[in-house]
Write a structure and sequence with these properties.
Elements (H helix, E strand, L loop, with lengths): L2 E6 L8 H8 L8 E2 L2 E2 H10 L4 E8 L4 H11 L5 E5 L4 H9 L8 E4 L9 H14 L1 E7 L4 E7 L2 E8 L5 E10 H14 L6 H6 L6 E4 L10 H20 L1
Parallel strand pairs: 1-4, 1-6, 4-5, 7-11
Antiparallel strand pairs: 2-3, 6-10, 7-10, 8-9
Length: about 240
């Protein structure tokens, strides 16, 4: 079974803000450094280390294609890792990467370039589930009480309290059969639909998507405070690797 991984990493990092840029040299979270390496590289390493992954495609902004390509080539000289130009949205970046995959691809996993702490066990479990069912994502139970609101005149007013038992917080990887994912993107493009993740595009086709439970370490680094947490998680990860 041929498995390809798409890593969208074309974001501008607007939520990181000016202070983060001053401290790190960039507000673009995927290129901020953890232990001397860009966050993006940490994320790609998790998949490049797995034999069952046949190909990795990273989508970045046009101005980053050359240097990111050189970085990945140095890091993974024996692995098929390539770079494509992303778009102005996550959806466009993933679609651009999907377009370069061959029809012999069986499964496509999409993983955020700013989730560097996904663990191998969770990757294997979501790949196995998608191989069986055709569509699976990683998620974690919602722990906070979630309110549904309406917004008018600058105020948010509660309209319902949602049952936590029925809610999960979606993470990545999100894994789908190649033909299913292509069909989902084609349908979204034709209908002018924009989704916040790949699963939302697949769900529109009335396809059932399974959730594989992950863990709280698989954070998405989006805000300045996330970097402190990331450093703690990295120290813990390195300590576990050293103990093996």
């Amino acid at each position: 079974m041929k498995i390809a991984v798409i890593v969208p990493a074309a974001g501008l990092g607007t939520r990181m803000g000016k202070s983060s840029a001053e401290k790190t040299g960039t507000s673009r979270k995927q290129f901020m450094l953890l232990d001397g390496a860009p966050i993006l590289l940490h994320a790609v390493r998790k998949f490049a280390s797995l034999e069952r992954v046949g190909e990795i495609v990273v989508a970045v902004r046009a101005e980053d294609v050359e240097w990111v390509g050189e970085l990945l080539e140095r890091e993974f000289p024996a692995r098929p890792v390539r770079v494509v130009e992303g778009g102005n949205s996550r959806q466009q970046s993933v679609e651009n990467a999907l377009a370069v995959l061959g029809p012999e691809t069986d499964l496509v996993a999409v993983h955020d370039g700013v989730r560097p702490f996904i663990d191998a066990e969770t990757i294997h479990r979501v790949l196995d589930e998608a191989a069986e069912s055709g569509a699976a994502i990683v998620g974690v139970p919602a722990v906070d009480t979630v309110k549904q609101v309406s917004r008018s005149t600058g105020k948010a007013r509660i309209r319902a309290t949602l049952l936590r038992e029925k809610l999960v917080m979606a993470q990545t990887p999100q894994v789908f059969r190649y033909e299913l994912l292509r069909r989902a993107f084609e349908s979204a493009r034709q209908d002018g639909f924009s989704g916040t993740d790949e699963s939302s595009l697949v769900e529109r086709l009335d396809v059932e998507v399974t959730v594989v439970m992950g863990n709280d370490h698989n954070i998405k680094i989006t805000k300045p405070g996330d970097m402190e947490l990331a450093r703690l998680f990295l120290q813990d990860e390195m300590a576990k690797d050293h103990a093996l």
